[in-house]
Predict the structure.
Amino acid sequence: MIEQTKNMMGQMKWSGALKTIDQRIAEAQSFGWGHIELISALVTDELLYRDNQRIARRIRSANFRTPATFESLDYTAKRTLTKSQASDLMQLQFIKAAPRNVLLVGPTGVGKTFLAEAIGEYACRKGFTVCFTGITVLIEKWLITRSDGTYLKYRDKLIKTDLLIIDDMGLKKLPPEAVQDLHDVLEERQRKCTLITTQLPLKNWKEIIEDELALDSIVDKLRHGTLSLEIEGDTYRKKKGQVKAS
């Protein structure tokens, strides 16, 4: 009877309940559960398993570089990021109620990318779709998708994702085509949240965008209603290196 039930669970793809059925039956016998308690426990296991699978798929699809989480944020580094600021970001209000763009500004190595990925990972856990990309990779992807005919499909993905994270903006001057692509994506994402990490404050973006009209439009989209967090302090990478060396 039990093996037949397991086979039916497998056919119905009840993988979560199938993994725990032996444990749940043992618990039912030990604690005197009735049929209702046993069924409830197995259904709960299945729901939890499916939810975890969905989270895992969203995290894989986001394409993060590192397994960053809010729980692993380091507050011992000498930088201006505080637990209170991180806690506020953890509420994800900039995605939920009235989506706002987010700018993480600061020099190389202070943890902007790690924080951005931690925000993205937490958003995945809370049911939001996320796409993470470095600006250099994004520019290359635009070029590749144009050549192989998948540009519109990729552009649609960037537009529809709940949280788009663009990392390392400002490393080099943007090509004219990339400027137009960035402008168009931001234009279409006015009801979505775009998070950008950059070394350059918006007032200095003329260093990477030559087209003045496009510059004004892009900066205007990112200036109004945007949550801007400036992170200053010691280089986090240097701190990690010193710990390894000690």
Q: What stands out?
A: The CA atoms of residues 177 and 194 lie 20 Å apart. The longest strand covers residues 163-169. Strands lie at 102-105, 130-134, 163-169, 193-198, 227-230.
